[in-house]
Amino acid sequence: MTGPDSDIETLIALMARLPGLGPRSARRAVLHMIKKRGQLMDPLSDALARVATYARECVMCGNIGTEEVCPICRADKRANGQICVVEDVADLWAMERASVFSGRYHVLGGVLSALDHVGPEDLRISLLRRRVTDEGIKEVILALNATVDGQTTAHYIADELEGSGVAVTSLAQGVPIGGELDYLDDGTISAALKARRSF
Fold it and tell me: What is the CATH number of domain 77-198?
């Protein structure tokens, strides 16, 4: 009895590296895609090739899209004096999915972490300071995950913006300690944004 050939094994191994998929889940997914080649595998292959070619970070906020400046940053109506600071793009997408924030975003690209050797220079904090000045920002909303590193980063940013005249607020009720925005339901995100407090 033989197993999958090397190309299929390579695909399974690559799929197993994705978050939420282990070797068994990846094997099932690959077998399903092969069986539904015309409906799944061919379109997936085309989409992966397009994304690999065209995906890029927005030069303003760090969102992922296919243009140099994302639609959120291009929209004049989003220039309302608010910037919502998030750890990564998944958090930005979670906020957008909840449809409760009408300003612009700033993706840090991570959080401060002594354990992982991530310092302020590794994040997009200096760009945030520049945007606050250049875009006439009145409020910076810190929508960072309620983890030790997330809160350390929030305090660092609040200190950096002190004296700039900008209000610094953070998400309030509904975000559990250790919780991550990407895993919260839309109602919880909405309540946390509406009840934000001064940081």
Answer: 3.40.1360.10
Separation CA 168–CA 156 (nearest Å): 12
Amino acid identity of residue 39, one-letter, is: Q
Domain spanning 6-54: which CATH class is it, in words? mainly alpha
What are the domain boundaries of the chain? 6-54, 77-198
Q: Distance (Å, rounded) from C-alpha 41 to C-alpha 12? A: 13
User: Which pTM value belongs to this model?
Assistant: 0.77
pLDDT of the chain along its 199 residues, tens only?
Answer: 456 688 999 999 999 999 999 999 999 999 999 999 999 999 999 999 999 999 999 999 999 999 999 999 999 999 999 999 999 999 999 999 988 899 999 999 999 999 999 999 999 999 999 999 999 999 999 999 878 899 899 999 999 999 889 999 987 655 555 556 666 666 666 666 666 666 6
Burial of 57 (0-12, 13-18, 19+ CB in 10 A): middle
DSSP 133-155: HHTT--EEEE---SSHHHHHHHH
Instruction: Name the nearest CA neighbour of 168 among 199, 193, 130, 126.
Output: 199
Do the first three CATH levels of 6-54 and 77-198 match, i.e. the same topology?
no
